[in-house]
Amino acid sequence: MTEKIYKVLFLCTGNSARSILAEGLMRHLGGARFEVFSAGSHPAGAVNPLALQTLSRLHIRIDGFRSKSWDEFAGAGASDLDFVFTVCDNAAGEVCLVWPGQPMTAHWGVEDPSIVQGADDVKLRAFMDTALILKRRIELMLALALDRLGAMSLQQELHQVGKS
After folding, report:
1. Which of 36, 81, 88, 161 is labelled catalytic?
2. Residue 107 CA to chain centroid, in angstroms?
3. Which of 29, 96, 116, 140 is catalytic?
4. Smaller CB count within 10 Å for the chain: N or C?
5. What is the mean pLDDT of residues 69-86?
């Protein structure tokens, strides 16, 4: 019997920092069990270099990341999704598209490290702090018995993870 591969989408407004960090972390930690994407409601058009530097410091591959619109994941022919997580408050408050596959959704909001002012080491620390929060939430999700929890229980657990 083949193990289910879950499709996960992380959303943020610009798809340049937080959602990129979450995508990289989930790919790394979730391995072959997950197909992971990120997108933004108003993509910045470029990935923040500090997001890539942070992933690299965590020994996560940084090739292939790009800032893209969430339209890629909701249009005709888009793959069904299993999970959609918003990682910024702005994206959580926007009217979201209808996602194919009726995925579980949760808000895992974290502060935007790209707005931190100061020296490069201060900015990089903000990115690392954000990455560590997201990493912990992803680890908590990965510890769940995804294939055995009922939909209501799983939805509740995913919301709880976002509050940790």
Report:
1. 88
2. 10
3. 96
4. N
5. 90
Lowest mean pLDDT across 24-33, 37-46, 64-73, 145-154: 145-154
Token pair recorded at residue 45: 């058009």
Q: What is the CA radius of gyration of the chain?
A: 15
* Residue found under tokens 């999700």: 141
Strand partners, 135: none
Does residue 96 carry a catalytic annotation? yes
**Catalytic position from the list 12, 26, 81, 126:** 12
- Domain at 6-163: CATH code: 3.40.50.2300
Q: Where are the domains of the chain?
A: 6-163
Whether the per-residue pLDDT at 87 is higher than 70: the answer is: yes
Residue 134 has pLDDT above 60, yes or no: yes
**pTM for the model:** 0.93
Q: Which amino acid is at 46?
A: A
CA distances from 151 to 52, 76, 89, 121, 148 (A): 34, 26, 24, 43, 9
